[in-house]
Amino acid sequence: MSSFKAQQKNAVMITKRRLGKTLIAFSLFLAYLLYNLISLQLVNSAYYKDKVYEQITTESAMKAKRGTIYDANMNILATDKTVWRIFVSTREIRKRNKQDNIDYTDIICSGLSDILGMSSSDLYKKISGSKLLDVTVKKGVEEDKYKQIISFVESNGLLGMVCTEAQTSRYYPFGTLAAHTLGFVGSDLQGLYGLEYSYNSTLQGKDGSYLYAKDANGNSLPIEYSTYIPPSDGLSIVTTIDHFVQESLEEQLEAARINHLAQNRVTGIVMDTKTGAILAMATTSPFDPNSPYELDTLSQIKLDASGFEKDSEEYKKYKKELLEILWSNKAISETYEPGSTFKIVTVAAALDAGTAKVSDKFSCHGYLAIGGWHIKCHKAGGHGSGFDLAYGLQMSCNPTMMTVAERLGAENFYNYVRDFGYFEKTGIDLPSEASTIFHKQENIGPTELATASFGQRFKVSVIRHLVSLSAIANGGRLVTPYLVSKIVDSEGKTVEEFGERPSRQVVSAEVANTVADILEKGVSGNGGAKNAAVSGYKIAAKTGTSQKFDILDENGNSYLRIGSTMAFSMSDDGGIAVIIVVDEPTSAVKYGSVVAAPYVSAFLGETLPYLGYISETETPYVEIGNYVGQNIADAKKKLSELGIRYEILGGTDTVIAQTPSPLDPFIKENGCVILYTDEESAEYVTVPDIVGMNLYEANAAIINSGLNLRIEGANDREGGATVVAQSLPPGSVVTRNSIIELKILYLDFED
Asked: How crowded is residue 480: how many other Cβ atoms within 10 Å of its Cβ?
């Protein structure tokens, strides 16, 4: 019994231990469950609530509207507009194909290809071979095409198969105008170049969103589960660019490129000399920011002539290189040797330092021996002896500049180059401004000083050079250029305003005014910048031609040139400065006085009156008016009051036609108007060939031919100008007294 009882007692104890362990395990399990319950319900409730919310909610982005870019007169240069993505539902097409036993794919492809200008067969392959539910046909479809597609869909019962989605696209209303300044955006509307990049954070705004809940079947849950975060539209910027001035500059740059066969583009900038506001900036040939990935005509010709197979890696790489060149703002991002336009700095520095006076006498024998080299002047025979500093600058004499720089000394010269700002960026509000490449101060020996004195063997950006030289137009004060005058909100209210920024004095006002006067007399007198003259206005200018030493021929010689001209209007209240740089002209004459100065003249002649600058002299031309339909007696009276000679041809009392035409009404004061009173009275003359004549010869030929004369270009003060173009083709037959416009230039000056 005792043994049995012992076993029974042992079994009870084992059972109790097992029960205890079970109770402990169960208690621990309950504790674990309780812990997790508390964790879920109290500690981490917010986290898991968010996780559930994420699973049952859908977010739709609400795109912010990108700010507008305006010109100075509030003309829109860049804005957002609605375009459409056209896409098809492949599932719906397959369903309807099977249901109706009709090949809707073919119908859709044929219709869309006609509207969108796409290949129907390529589109068919794209749609029928896709495993995607949503196949994009085309993005960025304009409104007119969109409406055609809607009509096509409705008339062919294609609803649900062909779909559209409204999207936002960046739009540049004036196409290529100011393209390099404005830049462009990417597919995500992020600024990539130009002002679009510089002011991206200002323009882009902040996207909003609409969050709503849905159940397992995709049905929306009550509104309490929805959240709307409105987008915050971007701010707009008002630029200093003037549409008229920009357009005028671009016309002249393109004319220079074409007429002088420039191989490496032409660039130019226009700046208010008092404030630093940029009125225009351009580079030929511009891209279209509406389609920035399309090459311009010249670049496409280069790509086609490359010999690379289309779509090959070499082809794609070369196209990318051409696009990057096309997008590059030459006025900001590239450097060049400024040549003789830099002589302005050399003379101003010497006068300011007191190491030279205007009355000092100089000699030029065609070269100057320095550092073991015979450094030449552009005039092989030299400029002679006994002339003053003003003459040396106006005639762009290299030995004069070398002599002046030698007197100034390397250290002083270096310091003035620094003071004029050449060792710092201008701070203009555009990306990728290039830095000056100049000699280290300790490396400036006699030869380096000599060549630098006339703007060779160092490089500057066009914007840096224009701003530095404009100190001479601004009483010796260096300004900071800028392109954005203010930031405004969607209601047009000013958020932030910009204007003239801090500046510094680099030379005295007396020195600046002296140099400006020398440059003006070089234009109005017999200096090398005569081709930059503008009738009725005081224009100071300096031309320049530099060599490109980083590209040599097979014999190691420099053969490429850069021709340029910098000019500014002389005004007590400030004026405008303009620079035009023609890179690698390949015409017969490559000097800045010919390839750039005439285009500066034409630009200023058109722009100064527009900007309100008053001509100092009366125009030599008279506006004759329109007399067609008037009584002969009234027409004669009006012409007599204007002091214009006239002839009457015909026997009736009413004017039926006149020469010159009222569409071209300006003639010289001594010109003559013919009034026709019947159709049979018209008289005709043959236009002579005037090109190549001097002005006196041309004037005689025109008078003898019975034509009226009008002159464009330089004033022929010394009798050395040559006619380089005429408006009426030689040999053409026109009515007597028609106007022939002649373009004259001085072709005998080098710089």
From this structure: 17
Beta partners for residue 387, in sequence order: 362
Q: Measured at the alpha carbon of residue 683, what is the angle toward residues 679 and 686, in degrees to the nearest 5?
A: 140
Question: How many CB atoms within 10 Å of residue 199?
Answer: 24
The b/e string for 437-469 (b: 16+ C-beta within 10 A; e otherwise) is ebbeeeebeeebbbbbbbbbbbbbbbbbbbbbb
How many Å apart are CA 433 and CA 452, to the nearest integer? 22
pLDDT in the model for residue 49: 59
Neighbouring-strand partners of residue 62: 208
Q: Which of 70, 206, 542 is nearest to 342 (CA)?
A: 542
Q: What is the DSSP string of 609-656?
A: HHTTPPPSS--SEEE----TTSBHHHHHHHHHHHT-EEEEESSSSB--
CB neighbour list of residue 562: distance below 8 Å, 6 or more residues apart: 336, 337, 339, 545, 546, 547, 548, 581, 582, 583, 584
User: pLDDT tens-digit profile of 534-581?
Assistant: 988 999 999 999 999 999 888 889 999 999 999 999 987 779 999 999
C-alpha distances out from residue 224 to 60, 128, 214, 220, 738, Å = 17, 43, 12, 11, 81
Kindly report the average pLDDT of the chain as a whole number: 90
Is residue 262 within 8 A of residue 585, CB to CB? The reply is yes
Residue 374 phi/psi, 5-degree rounding, is -95, 100
Using the structure block, give the residue that is written with the tokens 């169960």: 26
User: What letters, b where the CB count within 10 A reaches 16 and e where it falls short, cover 702-721?
Assistant: beebbbbbbbbbbbbeeebb
Measured distance CA(669)–CA(667) in Å, rounded: 6
Helix (H, G, I), strand (E, B) or coil at 232: strand
Per the DSSP assignment, residues forming a β-bridge with 375 are 368
What is the C-alpha to C-alpha distance for residues 448 and 370, in angstroms, rounded to an integer? 10
- Provide the pLDDT for residue 736: 87
CA–centroid distance for 355 within its chain: 41
Burial zone of 143 (CB within 10 Å; 0-12 exposed, 13-18 middle, 19+ buried): exposed
Phi-psi label, residue 459: left if phi above 0, alpha if psi -120 to 50, beta otherwise: beta
**Which DSSP helix (H) or strand (E) runs through 412?**
helix 410-419
- Cα-based distances in Å from 210 to 17, 213, 229, 649, 703: 62, 10, 6, 79, 78
Confidence of residue 304 (pLDDT cuts 50, 70, 90): very high
DSSP secondary structure letters along 90-114: HHHHHHHHHHHT--HHHHHHHHHHH
Q: Is 38 left (phi over 0), alpha (psi -120 to 50) or beta?
A: alpha
In angstroms, rounded to a whole number, what is the distance separating the alpha carbons of residues 326 and 298? 10
d(CA 262, CA 463): 20
pLDDT band at 186 (very low <50, low <70, confident <90, very high): very high
| Cα torsion through 534, 536, 540, 544, rounded to 10 | 10
Q: What 3 state SS string does 426-466 have?
A: CCCCCCCCCCCECCCHHHCCHHHHHHHHCCCCCEEEHHHHH
Measure CA 65 to chain center: 24
How much of the chain, in percent, has pLDDT values that exceed 90? 67
Please give the single-letter amino acid code of residue 710: R
Query: What is the per-residue pLDDT for 402?
Result: 98
CB atoms within 10 A of CB 748: 11
* pLDDT grade for 614, boundaries at 50, 70 and 90: confident
